[in-house]
Design brief:
The complex is a heterodimer. By secondary structure, chain A is an alpha+beta fold. Chain A has 15 helices and 16 strands. In chain B, 26% of the residues lie in helices and 21% in strands. Classes of the chains: A alpha+beta, B alpha+beta.
Chain lengths: 420, 358
């Protein structure tokens, strides 16, 4: 037991109510854990948090803490009120990369818990918003010990600061019928190609990879990733007409029309008089809605691949940006395909490292220099899939038109020859 | 410790998830045929091989103490073959082959205080950031806001009564680590930073702080003979971007750091392109320990959405159909001059048509 327990009247309020309480969890560490070090940390952590609740202010400041050989991966936290709460005075977080798809065995979770209890506060989150396992609360010295221990059995730090960050992927092919890609392989191929850039922050700002197996985009890649990879397909949606009929019989014609047919963003579906479904696949934009509503009747096609979008980010500095289509479709089957996407990521990071301003995300750089300059920088040809519509402004010098048109025709001819 | 005694890291990067995957998922990888949703919190996936996997999803307190982690593992060992995964909203998922274990697994989870639900058209677990517990720049707590709010929304998590899924997010500053949500509760500062001029020169790299400001409101200055920074308070948008690189520019204020509520952020491409969230309410008090004012507004929005939206409409789809005037009418929230955007690209958010629902 800690020597004297801080009063926490405001935090105690968060032990009421039916949702599991993190305060009760921290109190368990304070009151029931066999290690006095952990009792003391939990007590002072609660004390400082109560102080924050009372004064409505935070009391952690950053600093410089890392493990030997790395420059990042630790979020340093030193208390500004450490004199009052000395046992949680140093309370750093270790960001640890989860396995692709966030799968764990209970044996491994226990092992991580045991190591963490030995060196840290006993508090952990699966996962933080960047996608890391967050081991919250270690002293500067123990940060190294804990890392050494878990690094020996297969765990590595993620990114923090201006570097390639920990990546994310959805459950994907492991359990989802909508998956059009091997999310876990893409995730690991990309991020593990940049371990040096993960561990030694030297880029303009953060760079995130996120991989979703289909356009439902369960890992929010378009909104949050500098490099978003989304599984898709380019042949026809597979329709099981018997299941369509079964759906119509069960839910009703009107329900089917109102909830499937008319919700199609490109109006490419029709429910025929005999209750069979007709899809104009040429105009399907792979929005996923009909597949979500009728998963038993409709499935993605067989000619699968991915779309790559770049430049998504949150608010600071210039405002929220969605990613922009850079590769409308590419296959990801052979090792050469994987090499191609890795090279694309390398070209992008190299170009941005060279041209991005300090603290400027890739998407902000694209906004500043224009998409065309970015595409030229990374060696990608323009494509009408990259825009919602062509330019509306005539304020542009276009004396290179003939050459550009020629490039388009020769590219089309090459594509035709390659396909032919 | 001398450098020669230091251990060099093994740069193994992201671990292979396949080693921790349930055998039935491994066996049917990429071969799933369809899924069903037998009850809230439970998914049944059927593979082309005829194999099936039952998933039970449960909400937790997210900040897990080792006792809770071990309890989750114990349940996993007893009922789920020792395999789990976590969703990006920090729910735990157990995957099992044997349907007969589903009920017992649910009982064990609920018996231990976890909450089974969060699937399909429910209010999912609120995704949240670090807050006062661990962040260096937070205007509020995250875990506390989420706990207080989930206490009130627990029935919507445990049941699937919403028109479509609802993702709620929180963020403790305007960097918005919580991301986009159908409903987002984010800190919104309302006053410029208070500058401790004695510390700026020693703590901050002044040119980078100047460069961080989105509206160029910060400039170098001398105060009491010391180099420092000053803020043009007429230009300042109170975003707090200067605070992380320069802590003496204190943006957090117990009274004036408020919460704002945003709706209609949708990451999915389903039905329409992904959308960003839009401001609906601001000036909401940052009121620990239970933030009742913010929760009341969220519940008001959810009530209107639940009553008025059609099946499969996410909040953004619903508002696209009914229009913003009707949204403000149905929720009783005020429409103010602050709702009209003036940031770059904002002309596209103005109505340049005669499309008006009269």
């Amino acid at each position: 037991m800690a020597k004297s327990i801080h009063d926490t009247p405001m935090l105690d309020e968060l032990e009421n109510g039916p949702w599991p309480s993190f305060i009760s969890g921290i109190k368990r560490l304070r009151d029931q854990h066999s290690d006095e070090r952990i009792n003391g940390i939990a007590n002072d952590l609660l004390g400082q948090l109560e102080h924050s609740y009372e004064t409505r202010k935070g009391y952690w400041k950053g600093g410089t803490v890392s493990v030997y050989g790395y420059g990042g991966g630790i979020i340093p936290r030193f208390s500004e009120v450490g004199a009052q709460f000395p046992e949680s005075r140093e309370f750093h977080t270790l960001r640890v990369q989860p396995p692709a798809g966030n799968f764990y065995s209970t044996d491994m979770l226990r092992k991580l818990g045991d190591s963490w209890e030995k060196w840290g506060s006993g508090l952990v989150t699966f996962h933080g918003q960047t996608g890391n396992i967050m081991f919250i609360g270690a002293s500067t010295e123990n940060t190294q010990h804990f890392f050494d221990e878990i690094n020996d059995y297969g765990w590595d730090l993620g990114g923090a600061g201006p570097c390639v960050r920990t990546a994310m992927s959805c459950v994907g092919s492991a359990r989802c019928e909508q998956s059009c890609a091997n999310e876990h392989k893409i995730h690991r191929t990309l991020v593990n190609n940049f371990t040096d850039d993960v561990h030694r922050p030297a880029l303009p700002y953060k760079f995130k990879f996120k991989v979703s197996g289909c356009p439902n985009d369960c890992v929010n890649s378009i909104e949050r990733a500098d490099f978003a990879v989304i599984g898709t397909w380019r042949d026809e949606i597979k329709v099981d007409q018997e299941e369509v009929e079964a759906f119509v019989n069960k839910k009703g014609r009107q329900y089917t029309i109102d909830n499937v047919i008319t919700r199609c963003p490109t109006n490419c579906m029709s429910l025929k008089d005999d209750d069979t479904l007709e899809i104009d696949d040429r105009n399907c934009v792979k929005c996923m809605h009909c597949l979500n509503v009728m998963p038993k009747a409709l499935s993605p096609g067989d000619d699968k691949g991915v779309t790559v979008l770049m430049g998504g980010k949150r608010t600071l500095k210039i405002g929220d940006l969605m990613g922009t289509v850079i590769v409308p479709f590419m296959k990801l089957e052979t090792e050469q395909d994987y090499e191609r996407i890795t090279e694309l990521a390398e070209e992008t990071i190299d170009f941005w490292a060279e041209n991005g301003l300090e603290h400027e995300r890739c998407g902000e750089m694209i906004e500043r220099i224009g998409l065309v300059n970015f595409l030229e920088g990374i060696g990608v040809d323009v494509d009408p899939n990259m825009v919602s519509h062509p330019r509306e402004s005539s304020y542009v010098r276009m004396d290179g038109w003939d050459e550009e048109a020629e490039k388009w025709f020769s590219r089309k001819a090459e594509e035709k020859a390659a396909a032919g | 410790m001398a450098q020669k005694d230091m251990r060099s890291p093994i740069e193994s990067g992201c671990p292979d998830g396949f080693q921790y995957m349930h055998p039935v998922m491994l066996k049917n990888f990429g071969q799933w045929k369809y899924h069903e949703h037998p009850r809230p919190g439970v998914l049944r996936h059927i593979a082309h091989s005829g194999d099936e996997v039952w998933t039970v999803k449960a909400g937790t307190q997210r900040i897990l103490d080792v006792f809770t982690l071990r309890k989750l593992c114990e349940i996993g060992d007893k009922f789920a073959d020792g395999y789990v995964r976590f969703t990006i909203r920090s729910n735990i998922e157990y995957m099992i082959e044997d349907e007969s274990k589903v009920e017992r697994l649910i009982d064990a989870l609920e018996g231990a205080g976890f909450v089974v639900g969060g699937t399909a058209n429910s209010v999912a677990m609120i995704s949240h950031t670090q807050g006062w517990l661990h962040c260096d720049i937070p205007g509020t707590d995250a875990s506390g806001v989420v706990k207080a709010m989930m206490d009130e929304l627990i029935d919507e998590f445990k049941n699937c009564n919403m028109p479509n899924r609802v993702h709620i997010t929180t963020s403790c500053c305007q960097i918005n680590c919580g991301g986009q949500g159908d409903i987002a509760i984010n800190v919104q500062h309302t006053k410029p930073p208070k500058i401790n001029h004695d510390l700026v020169a020693n703590v901050c790299e002044r040119p980078s702080v100047v460069a961080r400001c989105p509206v160029a409101a910060i400039r170098p200055a001398q105060v009491n003979g010391k180099p420092t920074l000053e803020v043009d308070e007429k230009k300042c948008i109170c975003c707090g971007a200067c605070y992380p690189p320069c802590p003496p520019m204190q943006i957090n204020d117990p009274e004036h750091s408020k919460l704002a509520i945003w709706v209609g952020g949708n990451h999915s491409n389903a039905r329409s392109k992904p959308s960003f969230q839009k401001l609906v309410a601001a000036g909401v008090p940052n009121n620990p320990p239970r933030w009742p004012e913010a929760t009341a507004i969220v519940k008001k929005i959810l009530r209107a959405y639940k009553a008025d939206a059609k099946d499969w409409e996410r909040i953004n789809d619903w508002i696209d159909r009914i229009g913003w005037p009707r949204f403000f009418e149905l929720t009783g929230l005020p429409f103010t001059k602050y709702h009209i955007d003036h940031w770059r690209g904002s002309r596209k958010s103005l109505n340049s048509s005669s499309y008006i629902r009269l």
